[in-house]
Amino acid sequence: MILPFLPASNLFFPVGFVIAERVLYMPSMGFCILVGYGFHLLSERWSRKMTWCCLGVLLLTHSIKTYNRNADWESEYSIFMSGLKVNQRNAKLFNNVGHALESEGRFEEALQFFHKAVSVQEDDVGAHINVGRTYNHLKMFKEAEQAYLKAKSLLPKAKPGESYQARIAPNHLNVFLNLANLISKNATRLEEADLLYRQAISMRSDYTQAYINRGDILIKLNRTKEAQEVYERALLYDSTNPDIYYNLGVVFLEQGKASQALAYLDKALEFDPEHEQALLNSAILLQELGRPELRKIARERLLKLLAKDETNERVHFNLGMLAMDDRNTDEAENWFRRAVHLKQDFRSALFNLALLLADDHRPLEAAPFLNQLVKYHPDHIKGLILLGDIYINNIKDLDAAENCYRRILQLDPINIQGLHNLCVVYVERGKLLQAQDCLSHAHELAPGEEYIGRHLQIVQTRINRLRQTPDGSREKEIAFADYDPQEFGGTPGAPLSTGGNVELSLGQPIVHSNSEQLAGSSGSSQQADLLRADSVDVQYGSDNKQKTVLPHQPLEQQQQQQQHQSGPIPADDDPVFLESESTNNLQSYAAAAAAPAVDSIAHKARQYRTEDGSSSKPLASGTRNTNHPSDGSPLHHAPHHPSSPHLHRPAAAAATTIGQDLDDPSSGMS
């Protein structure tokens, strides 16, 4: 009986496979019994002294061996390296050493061991998957794709004209997910990724992770109905998975079904009360409904998140939004300041904090936050407009204001708001001829804006008065100085146009006036009364929503303007006290293995439009196409709450998001 076992005993030569020590615990009992029986026999035949000496030597040598072996168990890396000292012909040992190094973030060293595993056993699918995943960690995406394709080619293939069943290790199906995750980073290859997920599902109908990831791809492809069907099918196999309910909630948000979305987010919390993204995004949705009793629940959920992680700037920001809904500006300011402290480039928090301070008649406190905003986000047009407003009205720095408005026109040459305010700077400098041409150009771009026409007429009247004064005055010299019309997008020699009688709407100006008259001369100085960015009053109506009211405007015009405001807002605009996110992709939560924090389930997280560009990861993140009229909007306007806000992408532990690879446990320790 012993002879057949000897070739596989590993006593005379290494056999190439590894047996875990735990497997030998029970068999070692027989060895101990054999030693005891041998001691009994030897003590009867030999002297008891000699027998005890032999037993002592045996115990001493094994004790020393056990003591030395303890050092090998110091870490995963040391235990697997000790195995390699004994046997270097086993791919599983190389994979295990690679996994240990990978868990410590030592990806370059891990890659060497994974390559060694491939060289030892070229048909090891798990080793090729590990190579691809490590390349992905190292941002070597082309090499990662090649490794995944090699692993995929080693799977059993269908034979033409034959029908048969092949047994594929479940963990080997991860190659489909990892390859799909990789190529889905390229927006032009989403259909390829979808095909890979469908292949994985065809091989294993209960592959929940493939359903989740495929749903994410379908959302990216704007096929939300199919995504809903995929998630619902996943529930057939895993009806207690909170991430599936969460993703279904986001799908319904995409479809504009807020009540159903909230129901699924609440269902996710029913199975996992600590689900961070469901807590955050359901709180935002509850706030969106605008009912005081629901805002209380939203606040409780946000405070619960805050107790778990005080460094989450999004929680601070949304608590600030809740405070604004409750008209508690002091508390809102506090939360916004905390959000900015935690994330210095938090786009929405910076802008909304500055706007809050400006509306609270503290423009000099707002200016540093606006400068910080345009430092990190130089394309933030509304921030530049508000900053220019403060430079003109409060700091009295026309050069800085002009730089702000020129930057706006570089970003958007037909931005009427920025162009008009640049014209105002020319008026303030006394460059009336240049201001006239500038306003004429603005009127050509926006002939429907009555205020531009009126201001143009005021400037022309002032020019005509100045022409009647004697030559040689400094004021007249400045007013008629040469200039380049291209500075404001005008054309040299273009004819001037006068303003017509058109209806004024709330669409454009940040500049309003308590006095329509630009001019009148008094002594040697003439003061321009043209309104540059006087604050628009923000009031609360009976529906507890903030409403914008222009001074000295008929009620009919105010109502028309409020209707004008309620339309969609362009992606680069910031609703007042609303979060916006510049993550431009819509991605799924896709649960199952630890994931780093993304941006954006919008998202950029689309969580009311969070514009900080986080990543969060993230179910979905992205930019919602809510917009104001295409020609712009006043700086101070009422909060606009999209009817279907998108939530930003979760970054939860024990979750695999799109783009994150799964390893192959089968290639590790048995």
UniProtKB/TrEMBL annotation:
A family per Pfam: TPR_16
Membrane topology: Multi-pass membrane protein
GO annotation terms (biological process): regulation of macromolecule metabolic process
InterPro entries per record: TPR-like_helical_dom_sf, TPR_rpt
Compositional bias annotation for Low complexity: 553-565
Primary enzyme class: transferase
GO molecular function, one term: dolichyl-phosphate-mannose-protein mannosyltransferase activity
Extent of Polar residues compositional bias: 615-630
Record-stated family: Belongs to the TMTC family.
Subcellular localization, as worded in the UniProt entry: Endoplasmic reticulum; Membrane
Protein keywords: Endoplasmic reticulum, Glycoprotein, Membrane, Repeat, TPR repeat, Transferase, Transmembrane, Transmembrane helix
Protein's name according to its UniProt entry: Protein O-mannosyl-transferase TMTC3
EC nos: 2.4.1.109
Gene Ontology cellular component terms for the protein in this record: endoplasmic reticulum; membrane
Positions of region (Disordered): 483-504, 553-578, 606-670
Recorded superkingdom: Eukaryota
Biological or metabolic pathway of the protein: Protein modification; protein glycosylation
